[in-house]
Specification:
The protein is α+β, with helices and mostly antiparallel strands. The protein has a domain of 133 residues: Metal Binding Protein, Guanine Nucleotide Exchange Factor, Chain A, CATH 2.170.150. Helix content is 21%, strand content 26%. The chain contains five helices and ten strands. The strands form two sheets. It has a seven-stranded mixed sheet. Strand 7 and strand 8 form a beta hairpin.
Amino acid sequence: MPKSKKHTPALGADYSEKMKSRFAEKVKPSGKVYSKADRRDNQVKDDLSEELQQEIKKENSMHGGCLCGAVKFKLTGELRPVINCHCGQCLHTHGNFAAYTSVEKNKFQLVNDVGLKWFSSSKEARRGFCQECGASIFFERLAGSNISIAAGMLDSSKGLKTVEHIFVDDKSDYYEIEDDLPKYSQYYKRQLESDT
């Protein structure tokens, strides 16, 4: 059955002209003429200053969680270097010494807390663990501005370094601390500010 001219779509130059006239009223050019300098300023620069690269790095987010996924979190702040704690509480909580990093509480966000359970380990602090898989995840000094995270809970530990040992007098006899990192019998004022 032949198609009527009424329903035959316009093709080629006719179609292009119809589209131009149809959208001409809706799309208005800004009238701004861009110079080479404008285009140069809008280019992405690879040679960022070291300070700017550090600022970008600080704002990058990191993720982590427990073994079963019932506790997941996101961190957007700069992480403190790892401190190995050999205190009796960490030995009994982790089954060994604990390696903790830390971040400001306002840069920490729980993504999934369905398995999270808190245990008051003292009047000043509490410990967070997963009640599903048993992972020991957080240490939080209640009056502190930071929350400590077991470093092994991070999805990536890229860039993190262990910098010292604390409570070395409490360590168990079955292992030795043989590295050259600073060792402290307790913790000191700076660590009280940034938590364990």
